[in-house]
Amino acid sequence: MGWAELSRAAPSQVESRQNYKLQQYLLEEVKWLDRFFSKEGIPATVAFDELDTWLEQVSDSLFRGLSTNADRLYNEIGEIIETLKQDTAALQTAESTEEVPDRIAKIGALSRDKMIKHLFAVTEKIEIPSKTDYQTVSSFYKGTTAALEFPFGKSETNIYCVRSLFPDEIKTAIADLKRLRTSLDQLIAPLKGKESQIRQLEHVPALVQAINDVRSGIAEEKEHVNDQEEACSALERNIETESSRLERIEDSEDWKKFKALEGEVSSVKEELNTLEANVLRLFAPLTKPLKLLKKQDETGRHTLTPEERTAIGSILSSPLRALGGDINGRLRAIQKVIEGDPAVLKDRKRETALNWIEQLLQADLASITGKRERLQLQITETTSTLSDLAILQEKEELEHSLEAAQGQRAHLREEIARSKKHIVSLDEELREQKQRLVKALEELAGNEIEVTFEF
């Protein structure tokens, strides 16, 4: 059994009168609640930004008389605490004159020490608040009643033993605790039956904060979208400006000159490629016979002179490079090898190779070499002229800048689309939060409430 149980035991006549007053007080509160829920004194319309004032009105109406009641009972509880300290001190110094068995005397003495320690701790711990709002009253009530709970074991043996030793002192202390419990019950009485309204009162600020958080999120996202759109507009202007510059470059005489020279280089390169392909075709019929001669030289079946070996190797390696040297002399050296030893090639291959060498000797190979050199020189000179023209670099830099700007614009447009989608989601969340707030206010007031949101 704890102090709370002890304080509820065997009410005296004084306590009975106090309980009657408490019941009358609660009856009046119930009647007032009926008036409260009949929508008296609670504005049916409230602006969101004025909710603090509205909640104060609701709180004042809901807890009518709480402050006056608390002030009175705070004083009363303070007096009881002082009396309890004195009575606890009296219990501490009391000498027992009762004749009891040794076992009861031993248990009683130990239990008294625990009681005294706890009672002093309780009286020191209880601090009378200075505020009389419902949160303070509720917190004080919960803390004090929790402090009064003190178990003395699994049975009433300990209490019985202490009472057997110090009957008068225990009776006085228990009377103090009963008065304290009665005062605490009277203190909390105005809050009884209003638990759901209290929960709503405590929940509304969180709902208001949630709405403000979503509003801030929407404002930040809209500002972000505005910044992105301004950046996108700046990019659009930059892209338009640089596109105009690019058009002017492409319409300029310098660019037309560049394109003409570029076309010239392309045409000459194509002519050179055709010429070199024709050269390779001219020497293609000699490829197999020359490879056979080279193989026979490598295997020792026929030994070539260094001059003959060089002639065969140069043509096999690159007929184009061979044209740059004494091509006719090399062809005659090869012709001499084939004619000097009928065994080096079979009759048909020998005859074909000799006929083709003769045709090459009759051809104007020197003119082919000269034309090739002229085409190469023309390509080199025209390419050099092109490289000296700054317009290509200017155009390429401008195209790279345009490409980068267009990429940034595409990225910004994607970001803007995501941000706007997020704003739609936040707007829906805001709508739901508003509905939750209105519902909470209506449950608090007991009637329909219209909340005006100026945003």
Q: How would you explain this protein's 3D organization?
A:
The protein has 17 helices and two strands. It is mainly alpha-helical. It folds into two domains: 3-33 and 61-193, no CATH class; 222-435, no CATH class. Strands 1-2 form a two-stranded parallel ribbon. The protein starts with a helix and ends with a strand.
Fraction in beta strands: under 5%
Give me the Rg, rounded: 56 Å
Low-confidence stretches: 9-14, 30-39
Number of strands: 2
Sequence of secondary-structure elements: HHEHHHHHHHHHHHHHHHE
Estimate nothing, just give the exact number of structural domains: 2
Q: Describe the largest sheet.
A: 2 strands, parallel
Instruction: Give the distance, in angstroms, between the N- and C-terminal Cα atoms.
Output: 59 Å
| Oligomer class | single chain
Shape: elongated
What structural class should be given to the helix and strand makeup? mainly alpha
Helix percentage = over 70%
Sheet with the most strands: spatial strand order: 1-2
The DSSP helix count reads 17
